[in-house]
Design goal:
This protein is mainly β. Helix content is about 10%, strand content about 65%.
Length: about 160
């Protein structure tokens, strides 16, 4: 029992430095996404506000092209997410769950709502710019289309403001 208490105290003290609140004038980030999807061009963007050194929150927007021959719908997704960061050297690994609206248009137009999940990594080029890759999954809980709606990998550029 003493070993468990000592281990708990050590872990608590070690993680206290990770949860230090960000200073006044909280830094912001803009992330621009681009790539090729089954429907063609895929674009996106995120606006993030750092809450602590390892957490941020913000909004996202994604736009995917339509290709009826391949069965790829036009998708416009808009929502909010919270992002957890782990910094290792020049790399920033992240996981970002969220919720949002999806405008889905293949043969008819549907408005969907559901969770999102993004994860990826960014390599810092300098303190203000980073390059990386991200996987985004869009899900729907309601409407004609339910379940996984879109699963894409996009390249991104991050700008710290």
């Amino acid at each position: 029992m003493k070993l468990f208490a000592a281990l708990l105290a050590t872990v608590t003290l070690a993680t206290q430095s990770l949860a230090v609140p960000a200073p006044a004038g909280t830094p912001k980030q803009v992330v621009i996404h681009a790539g090729i999807d089954e429907g063609g061009l895929a674009l996106g963007g995120d606006f993030l506000v750092n809450d602590t050194a390892t957490e941020s929150y913000g909004g996202y927007v994604r736009l995917y092209s339509k290709d009826e021959d391949k069965g790829a719908p036009a998708i416009f997704a808009l929502g909010a997410s919270a992002r957890g960061h782990v910094k290792a050297g020049i790399f920033d690994y992240f996981l970002a769950p969220g919720f949002g609206l999806i405008h889905h248009n293949l043969f008819d137009t549907e408005l969907l709502f559901g969770p999102t999940l993004s994860y990826g990594l960014t390599a810092d080029i300098d303190p203000y710019i980073g390059l990386g890759i991200e996987n985004t999954k869009l899900y729907s809980w309601m409407g004609e289309y339910k379940g996984l709606i879109k699963d894409t990998f996009l390249a991104h550029v991050r700008f710290r403001l």
